[in-house]
Backbone:
């Protein structure tokens, strides 16, 4: 780029007279000068207008003062002479102010000056001959003042007209200059710049043959010349890159096929129920390697269902074949080998070795994950069985024990022939216990049949809330704000069972008109709240067996959480639990 710029400076010298920067400075200076001249002229005319309105008002007020004097001169009152003198003193003060304004003003119209002089002369005549002045002379004086006011108005209007002409001329000049500048910029800057943008766009698309039409010897001309040189250099570079891309394409084809086989293998091992590898993958691997045969040998017989393609019959050694083994090993556990047999005359390439090693890692990882899954499932089954045993013991077993005790009591009462009321009471308690045991049995069956068939806990919870909304015939608000994969499958089952148990209690016992479930992350922990605005829980809740509280407590204990219940007979019930992530 630097070399191109040097060549450009040597072959395409910039003309300062046609420089865009110089032109921009000149046009800016012309516009600023025009604006300044317009502002100066407007300021001069406006300054000349200053005080005209006040002067017209003062001269106009003389008419009213003359009328007052004429009325006073006609008065028959004893103090009429004094009143007239006072009015004349006021008039004399006003006309002196007008004389002061004339002395300091820029009135240049001779007719206006002469009219001022006539007004002053008539006033001096009236002032010197007060007793001999007739009413008609006052009227003539008023007419003289009116003529002066008209002349002042006309002169002020001429100044305003001059200001309008100056401003209109300035606007016209600025408009003409702007049109000239726009045309000049369009020819010197906008049109050439569009050409350069089009050339740059075509160069970006790989077309290096376009050339810009002749441009003035300015900055854009230098830029155009430089772009031409860059296009030539890019054309040469592009051709060189095309040759390299063609070479790399052949190399990437092998990599692409290798990745495809590895992806297919990884996907197959991750999605199939028994983690089986398709025999076609081994065939494709041999096709890509295109050098010998490939087989998989496992060391443990119980893993045979994980690898479907066994080619023990193809592992016959030949004196013209080399054997290379890729160990299936993960975290210190050895599972077998991928065996590659290839002719002795050929040398394995690095990408072939990397591909087979990657395949060995995928197979080893799949075997390890399968074994971990089996171990995890065993632990989960063991834990679930323990939970089921505790729930049976705390619910149904206690109810059966209660029934056994009551049956013994009933037997003794019958043997002793106690009163019929006591027998009936015992029988009623046995019936209540049986009903309670049956309800608990149904709750346990519903709990034990629960499965997470949906892909996420959010879908399962929404389905559960929708189910109980329909059952309860009132809205159930649902709030869920948990990071993805923050819960294990086992914890999701426990939470779902607790929520179902809580909503079941609301449905059967709460008599609520509104309820809600909130499962959120707060302060690094997971918070679950189930609430309703129903009738609350009875005081002897621990003695009643059909609220499913034992199941909820056992599930909460499995989550490592303590369950809290806040109940008010007028405000409903809130069940909450908190546990670490």
Residues:
């Amino acid at each position: 780029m630097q070399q191109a710029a040097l060549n450009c400076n040597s072959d395409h010298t910039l003309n300062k007279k046609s420089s865009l920067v110089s032109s921009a400075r000149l046009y800016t200076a012309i516009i600023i000068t025009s604006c300044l001249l317009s502002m100066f002229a407007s300021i001069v005319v406006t300054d000349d207008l200053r005080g005209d309105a006040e002067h017209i008002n003062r001269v106009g007020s003389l008419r009213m003062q003359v009328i007052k004097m004429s009325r006073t001169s006609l008065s028959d009152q004893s103090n009429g002479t004094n009143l007239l003198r006072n009015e004349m003193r006021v008039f004399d003060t006003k006309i002196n102010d007008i004389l002061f304004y004339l002395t300091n003003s820029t009135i240049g119209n001779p007719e206006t000056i002469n009219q001022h002089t006539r007004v002053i002369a008539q006033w001096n005549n009236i002032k010197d001959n007060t007793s001999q002045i007739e009413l008609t002379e006052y009227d003539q004086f008023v007419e003289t003042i009116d003529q002066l006011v008209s002349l002042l108005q006309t002169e002020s209007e001429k100044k305003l007209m001059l200001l309008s002409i100056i401003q209109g001329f300035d606007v016209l000049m600025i408009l003409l200059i702007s049109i000239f500048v726009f045309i000049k910029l369009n020819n010197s800057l906008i049109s050439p710049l569009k050409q350069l943008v089009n050339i740059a766009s075509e160069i970006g698309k790989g077309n290096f043959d376009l050339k810009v039409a002749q441009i003035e010897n300015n900055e854009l001309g230098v830029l155009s010349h430089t772009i031409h040189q860059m296009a030539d250099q890019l054309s040469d570079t592009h051709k060189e890159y095309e040759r390299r891309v063609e070479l790399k394409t052949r190399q990437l084809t092998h990599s692409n096929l290798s990745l495809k086989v590895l992806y297919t293998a990884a996907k197959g091992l991750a999605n199939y129920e028994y983690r089986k590898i398709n025999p076609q993958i081994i065939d494709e691997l041999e096709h890509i390697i295109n050098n010998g045969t490939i087989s998989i040998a496992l060391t443990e017989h119980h893993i045979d269902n994980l690898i479907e393609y066994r080619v023990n019959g193809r592992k016959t050694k030949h004196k013209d074949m080399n054997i290379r083994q890729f160990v299936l090993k993960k975290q210190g556990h050895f599972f077998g080998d991928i065996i590659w047999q290839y002719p002795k005359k050929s040398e394995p390439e690095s990408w072939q070795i990397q591909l087979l090693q990657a395949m060995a890692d995928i197979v080893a990882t799949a075997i390890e994950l399968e074994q971990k899954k089996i171990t995890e499932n065993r632990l989960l089954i063991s834990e679930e069985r323990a939970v089921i045993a505790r729930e049976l013991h705390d619910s149904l077993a206690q109810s059966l024990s209660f029934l056994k005790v009551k049956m013994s009591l009933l037997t003794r009462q019958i043997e002793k022939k106690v009163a019929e009321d006591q027998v009936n009471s015992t029988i009623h308690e046995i019936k209540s216990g049986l009903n309670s045991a049956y309800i608990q049995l149904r709750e346990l069956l519903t709990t034990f049949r629960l499965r997470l068939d949906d892909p996420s806990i959010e879908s399962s919870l929404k389905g559960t809330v929708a189910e109980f909304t329909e059952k309860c015939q009132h809205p159930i608000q649902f709030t869920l704000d948990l990071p993805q994969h923050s819960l294990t499958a086992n914890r999701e089952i426990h939470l779902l069972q607790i929520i179902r148990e809580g909503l079941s209690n609301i449905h059967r016992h709460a008599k609520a008109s509104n309820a809600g479930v909130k499962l959120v992350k707060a302060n690094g922990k997971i918070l679950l709240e189930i609430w309703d605005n129903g009738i609350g829980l009875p005081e002897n809740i621990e003695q009643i067996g059909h609220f499913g509280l034992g199941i909820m407590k056992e599930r909460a204990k499995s989550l490592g959480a303590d369950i809290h219940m806040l109940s008010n007979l007028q405000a409903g019930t809130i069940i909450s639990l908190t546990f670490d992530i």
